[in-house]
Amino acid sequence: MGFGFEHAALAVFTTLAPMGAASFIALAYAFVAGKPDAETAKRLDRWTAVPAIVMVAGFVGAFMHLANPLNAFGVFAGVGSSPLSNEIVAGLVFAVAALVYWVLALAGKLSGGARNGFLVVLSVLALVFAVFCGLAYMMGTIPTWNTPLSIVQMVGYALAGGAVLGFCVVGLAHAEMPKGAPAVALALALVGVLVGAVGFGAQIAGLDAIRNIWGSAAALVPAIWGLFGTFAVCGIVAAGLTYAAGKKAFSPAFMIVACVVVAIGIFVARIGFYGLYMGVAL
Amino acid sequence: MTQYGFYFDATRCTGCKTCEAACRDYHDLPLDLTYRHVYELEGGTWTQAADGTWTTDSYTFYTSFACSHCDDPACTQVCPTGAMHKGDDGLVSVDTHRCIGCGYCELACPYGNPHVDRDKGHSVKCDGCASRVAAGEQPVCVEACSMRALEFGPVEKLNQGDGRAAVAPLPDPSVTTPNFYIKNCAAAQPSGSTSCVVANEAEVK
Amino acid sequence: MLDTSMTLNRRTFVKATGALGALAAAGGVASSALFSGGAEPAFADGEEHIVWSHCHVNCGGACVLQCHVKDGELAYVESDNTGDASFGGVQARACLRGRSIRPWLGSADRLNYPMKRAQGTKRGDGQYERISWDEALDTIASEFTRIKEQYGNEAIFIQECSGVEQNIMMNNPFFRLFNLLGGEVTRYGSYSSASISFGAYPYVYGKSWGNRSFKTLQDDQLVVMFGFAPNDMRMAGDGPGYDLNVAREKKRVRIINIDPRRTETCTNLGAEWIPIVPGTDAALVAGLTHELIESNLVDLEFLHTYVTGFDEDTMPEDAKGANASYYDYVMGTGYDKVEKTPAWASSITRIPEERIKRLAHEIGEAKPCFICQGLGMQRHANGDNASRAVMALALMVGQVGKPGTTSGGTIGNGGIGLDSLPTGTNPVKTKIPQYLWPEAIRDGAKLTREHDGVQNADALKVGIKMLVNYGNNMMANQNGDINFTTDILRDESLCEFIVQYDVAWTDSCNWADIVLPDLTPQETYSLTAAGETNDVAGIRFGQPLYEPKFERREVYEVCGELARRLGVYDEYSAGGMTREDWCRKLYDELREDAGDDYDLPTYDEGVAMGAFTYDIEPSAKVDPFIEDPVANPLKTATGKAQIFSPEIAEMAKTWKLDESEKNAITPIPVYVPGPDSAEDVTDEYPFQILDYHCKGTTHSTYAHNPVLNKITPFQAWINPIDAERMGIADLDRVRLTSAQGSMITQARVTNRVIPGVIVHPQGAWHRAPAEGDRTDEGSCTNTLTSRQRNPISKGTGQHSVIGTIEKVEG
Q: Which burial class, exposed, middle or buried, applies to A56 when counting CB atoms under 10 A from its CB (0-12, 13-18, 19+)?
């Protein structure tokens, strides 16, 4: 055992898809608080392609993980019973809603109030998707994963990654933001990092109590605290970069670096999470 | 509905692994895959007396198991497509036309049974040799056991020994309600025991 | 003839297998016509056919293989599903080895064409080129003639054929052929059981006597096994491991196993394991005897009636007055004047004194008590005495020749006595001990009766100049001290011509001049009795699964081709008989001799049935010698069972032992540590290293089967206490080293072995360069074993080994 690299495709999915989804929280802020003019809104809508691509990349990762993707439409059969089906459906609900939003927005069919309402709904759906991403790993036969902390960390990662990615879109669109925006971005990202760290850290702290026939869960990933630290540092650095960039109208160059840094941090944490796979017995 | 199950008389098992060899042969399995596992577990210590003599309280025991065709299978619960399902005979098998190979069954099963075969594009597992059973034969592992330690049949007619398997390295039967019954041998340790370790890691991993 | 009670008669058997017969008939191919049909592959009709054969590798059994064949390939194996499937019933269910035969038959290791050693290369270099069968056979015929003319027939030797031991053919065609041409020097004894057969039984009982199977065990009785592992190596559904398991459950038999290793009888089956230092069994027996004497548990009446040499009263007249009895040895008044108290035995065996005393009481008070031994113990340098000592123990408590007992030797069995291919008469009478064939190559005429156990001659006339290895892996795998052995083989001036004829390219092929590709027993006609260690009766009618592939040919036909070249074909083939003809003829002779005793099917019925098994209920009656020892004396010097052997007393005076052998010929079975014993460990070599027969292979047969390697890996078992001291973790790559050589393997840290001892399965295929340090990457334990031999039997003592273990990277 060691790291969870055999689940790398899943780690790509659970890093990128919730990050892309939760970026709509920042976008909601950008529209609600930033009150962009029509031109700016158009630019924001165009650059919304970035979170869309991130999310699609995440889903491609999930797809790659399947041995037979051609049968993938069958996953709806398990809705309600299979946590994986629920997760995929939550993701698709978000994706469809986001697509509708985006098409309407690009077509100029969204007025200010409707757009803001839509964005709030999308923000909520993004968090629901993150919750279901965590729920997907809560299986009674996998005690290391079977904890609400699996959900908590996913919500944290979504918030942190989404905040950085969302404000990256703001920067790319050269959208003018209120003076308090950098602080809001920093707060959102830090809250995400904190929630993620609490979820992941508390999970790690509880490993000592879990054993199966092969030994203690604490021995599964010897470097697990190192992975935790990598996430925390990446998260804080990305948040700091976002704040600094915010002072310069969310400079795209800074924000792209911040996005990469936060994604690396989350990916490392996810690899650690998968490495903590341990069955109740074998 | 009939519910088939396995019975393992651990007091007769000598750990020869013929059941596993037969399973591998009949199902033409690659080296890294088997539908029947034989775990060897051991525990205890050695003590040397002042006069140099040795005593030991150590013990070794084997547990042979395949799919437990549980009443409450972890694999079917997590399966997103319903490909992993219980048939009318209670045997859990894979509908290969529906399986997407997501691997959740493999992660969830506490008996180490389903496995995603990426070449085949779906999960594979012990199906109780359903085609043999349908033809009135026994699963190949059962017929192979030279010590007659394995049995298979409708659970109401099956030997039930000490009840549903509750022995290391297997989970407590409350987890999935396995249709796997065991007569325990004297050296056996209960499910969840931390006093014994897997002694044949190279063989079962 | 044995008492037999047939659980199944022929007619019910035919009925039970009728469906299969119909299936074979539906295939439309008469199996007897398989090879006569030209190039058309057998059964290549896309359908699955059942072809019956059997496993065949000298484990002692011969299990049924019911092969499902499709398009000329084995699809999968079923075994014996005829007869009584219930616990206690007889079905010759194959073990994991037979079940895993498919990857073996189709292995990349298989030999496909005749080969010869490349010009200009030495033996061991491994350079070979393909040749035609004609060239191969011409070469063998001409070399045979040259060597016979130059050195005489005593220079020709046919090695044992362990890999194909269980059928009517074996390597008999070579003997049959050579015997027509002046014969060859032959061997006695075996690697398996030389010491017990030639160093113990003859001197204790006159010959193998009193051996009974586990089937004769009585309700609630005690079984004490010394170094015997029937559940590790004879795992078949009709084998002794099964019989013991059935008796354990149904007769509530209690089992104690004395062994350095926890065998499979002591895992789930719950037998008690008494760990012992290897090679110290005779010391344990002496300590037990002391306690038996002190507690009045020796059966004096029995000893005074049936046994020579327990005490002064029972010594032969000419040996009296010398304090030479076993009693004197044990009580400190004879031999070395040391009292063999349980504490003394404890210090040698490392079994606690209290446990030895309790064991003595258990043995002395149990009636009946089944005391038996395996064959590992007697493959130590003092194995002759160890083997005799355990027999003596059984005699001292009067537990031989009666219901619920065996001889203190091995277990016994019954079965159908099927003759093998007749080999004619060998004009050469000289015999060498099996184990000493390399010495017979190297030292030739220096091998004598008194020093080396040469029989029927005072000494050899000449060394072995032509060596025929058929169906064995003796040259570079299974002989004690492989580096010693191959050094001798490398020198072409010693043995001038070597043939290796086998199914797979083992390292032994690399030491031959000509290599021939054989069919496996499943690829040709085979006939065998149910097994030499299984207490059942039965016949296996093996039919070829498919036509021969590549240029593989079976031995009887090949020796026929040699016979043509050497001008004796008509005599050899008895007028053109084929292998299948011999199967039929030998079977018909058996059937005629058996008369009504077995209700045997005809040959053709048998072929349709594939396998034919009777359960037998062996006699547990009191032996005639016990009933009346005067009227039915044993074939010993004194007519009694002998703890003191006058024959050995004579040998002790006349035979010559090497000083270096640290061994002794003693008329009573005293404990002799022998060379490389537990007493000899050093800082450099702190462990005894012991090899054993494991589940995955029989000797080296199947040892390269990847499935078996996966589920029963070759690993060095080391106790956790030793592992910690040596810095070794479970599954570490390790090097084992003895004075003889060095090999790489994997460690398994386990409680299943006594501290101070490392055990490793034998049989793995040797893989080492012929020069340099010759480290064996193949985990072949004979890289480590010694050339120790037993003083009386000259049987192998190769298991007396000291050495060390270290972790290696990689």
A: middle
Q: What is the pLDDT of residues A83-130, one digit of tens each?
A: 999 999 999 999 999 999 999 999 999 988 999 999 999 999 999 999
Side-chain-side CA neighbours of C43 within 13 Å: the count stands at: 28
CA distance B193 to B169: 8
- As for the ipTM of the complex, it is 0.97
Q: What is the mean pLDDT of residues C604-613?
A: 92
Determine the average pLDDT of the residues in C754-767: 98
Considering only CB atoms, C352 lies closest to which of B45, B53, B140, namely B53
* Chain pair A-B, CB pairs under 8 angstroms: 108
- Would you call C712 and B17 a contact, using CB atoms and an 8 Å cutoff? yes
Please tell me which residue of chain A has the smallest CA distance to B172.
A281
- E strand or H helix at A65, and its extent? helix A49-65
Residues in chain A within 8 Å Cβ distance of B117: 67
Shortest CA gap C728–chain B (Å): 15
Residue C750 corresponds to which tokens in the numbers above? 């386990």
The CATH topology of domain B1-47+54-66+127-162+189-205 is Alpha-Beta Plaits (3.30.70)
Length of chain B: 205
CB-closest option in B22, B44, B48 to C99: B22
Q: Is residue C18's pLDDT more than 50? A: no
For residue A6, the model assigns a pLDDT of 73
Total domains in the fold of chain A: 1
CATH fold of B72-125 reads Alpha-Beta Plaits (3.30.70)
* CATH 3.30.70.20 placement within chain B: 1-47+54-66+127-162+189-205, 72-125
Nearest to A281 among B79, B103, B170 (CB): B170
Rounded to 10 degrees, the C-alpha dihedral C724/C725/C730/C732 comes to: 140
Q: What is the DSSP string of B3-24?
A: -EEEEEEGGG-----HHHHHHH
Given a contact cutoff of 8 angstroms between Cβ atoms, the answer to whether C478 and C782 are in contact is: yes
Which of C99, C277, C284, C536 should one mutate to test binding to chain B, selecting the residue with the greatest count of B CBs within 10 A?
C99
Q: What is the pLDDT of residues C686-728, one digit of tens each?
A: 999 999 999 999 999 999 999 999 999 999 999 999 999 999 9
Omega before A143 cis (within 30°)? no
Structure token digits, residue C498: 């070597």
- Antiparallel, parallel or unpaired: β C431-433 and C186-188: parallel
Nearest-angstrom CA–CA distance, C410 and C208: 9
Best CA proximity match to C556, nearest among C170, C83, C121:
C170
DSSP string, C20-47: HHHHHHHTT--GGGGGGSTTSPTT-SSS
pTM above 0.90, yes or no: yes
Q: Please check the confidence at residue C459 and state whether its pLDDT lies above 90.
A: yes
Nearest CA to CA, how far is B104 from chain C (Å)? 26
Q: Which of A10, A71, A88, A210 to mutate to test the interface with B (most CBs of B within 10 A)?
A: A71
Say if strands B180-183 and B4-9 run parallel, antiparallel, or are unpaired. parallel
Tell me: the pLDDT tens digits for A35-55? 999 999 999 999 999 999 999
Q: Map residue C191 onto helix, strand or coil.
A: coil
Using DSSP's 3-state secondary structure scheme, residue C466 falls into strand
Tokens at C744, concatenated: 């790489």
Least CB–CB distance from B51: residue in C78, C347, C708: C347
Kindly determine whether residue A141 and residue B97, on different chains, have CB atoms separated by under 8 Å: no
* CATH number, position A18: 1.20.1630
Chain B residue with Cα closest to C732: B202
pLDDT (tens digit, 9 = 90+) per residue, A227-258?
A: 999 999 999 999 999 999 999 999 999 999 99
Q: Which residue shows structure tokens 């640290």?
A: C662
Q: Tell whether the model's pLDDT for residue B199 goes beyond 50.
A: yes
